[in-house]
Amino acid sequence: MTASTTWRHWIPDAVLGFVVLVIGLVEIDGNIFFGLEPAPISIVVGLAVAVGLSRAMPGVALALAWLIGAMQVSAGTPAMVTELAFAVVAFGCARWGSTTVVWLSGLSIPASVAIAIVWLNIDAFYSVMSRTGLRTLAETAARGNDWRPAVAIMLLALVAAPWLLGLALRFSASASRSQESQVSAEAARDQAEEIAHLREEQARLARDVHDVVGHSLAVILAQAESAQYLKDADTQGLKQTMTNIATTARTSLEDVRQVLSSTNGTAAPTTRQGSLDSLIDGVRASGHEVTSTEVGAPQPLPPELEVVAFRVLQEMLTNAIKHGHRGAPILVERHWEGELRIEVRNVIDTGADETQPLVLADPVPERRGQGVEGMRRRLEAVGGRLDVRRRAEASGPTFTATAWVPVRSR
């Protein structure tokens, strides 16, 4: 809060305190410049200060109010109309005071009224009431043998009403702040959910692009390497290899376009009819030997599960091309036994870099590449699971990836 803002915050309170001071000095009998008694002047000044502090320092204002009362009782100063400003102090304590100040001010009201009734001179009280236009009300209330109960009720009402009003405004402001906090919390929660959604979309897009581009580049690289072993005179074979490379690149480009189109809400088919077989055929076209078996009757998959099966097999074949021995066949098995089980096994090329993250330890992988982790997340999202392990076999170390894809989405 700047200095100018602080001064503007104090101005209304200072003005109200000054008004109370002027009214009190005018009320004091006699000339306000000469012959004034110190007790009533001290009471008026203290009351004006208490009113001025009732919002900024309600606890100090309450203490001043009790000090003024003690001074008035000890000095025997008659009641004054100006003392109705104690209602402002009561209001300020209830509206802006701490919890302790609210309780103390609430207890102070009946205590101060009780002290006033014991100390009060009824004739002086009537004199004050006549100056405020309330004498008739006071006389009517005090009609009877004992005037104290009626006057006590009147005094209690005069001070308790503004205190209750301040308390009501306090609760209303607290409810408004609570509602604002709830709205802010809901906005923050919505923002956090939106950020989480965006991050998930980014992760999904990264997985899709990784699977599409990684698989296509692995196939293209294998096709390009196979062209090195063609005879110079085999122009037809070279043309066929270049055609396969172009087809793979074109298919990859179309898949990338479909992946990117899903980010702007455009509906696009993510897989093609018979796409699992087309993946295997594409690997064969790159020059790798693939042995594919299928057990059981194939069942139609929902679109979301078809996408998962396609991407998982795509990544499995990519790993087999990248890390498998070129002279050994890639074994692909598909079992339709209540759920689709896809298994891809290949002989590991021992000349490959063993530090690659996709060469995993047996049986539980300690290091995971982005492709393996992407497969695992895809499968878990639809209720499937993944197992990857390396085995020592007679033909050499093998890498086996097995995925279970539910036939129906969950």
Written account of the structure:
This protein has 410 residues and is of the alpha+beta class. It has 2 domains: 3-186, no CATH class; 274-410, 2-Layer Sandwich (Heat Shock Protein 90), CATH 3.30.565.10. The chain contains 12 helices and 5 strands. It has helices at 3-27, 38-52, 58-75, 86-96, 99-119, 122-131, 135-141, 148-227, 235-261, 275-285, 303-323, 370-381, and strands spanning 290-295, 330-336, 339-347, 385-393, 396-406. Strands 1-2-3-5-4 form a 5-stranded mixed β-sheet. Strand 4 (385-393) and strand 5 form a beta hairpin. The chain starts with a helix and ends with a strand.
In short:
The chain is an alpha+beta fold and 410 residues long. The protein contains twelve helices and five strands. It has helices at 3-27, 38-52, 58-75, 86-96, 99-119, 122-131, 135-141, 148-227, 235-261, 275-285, 303-323, 370-381, and strands at 290-295, 330-336, 339-347, 385-393, 396-406.
List keywords for this structure.
rod-shaped, 63% helix, Heat Shock Protein 90, 12 helices, 5-stranded mixed beta sheet, alpha+beta, 410 residues
Order of helices and strands: HHHHHHHHHHEHEEHEE
Low-confidence stretches: 31-35, 266-273, 352-368
Query: Count the strands?
Result: 5
Q: What order do the strands of the largest sheet run in, or round the barrel if closed?
A: 1-2-3-5-4
- Main sheet record: 5 strands, mixed
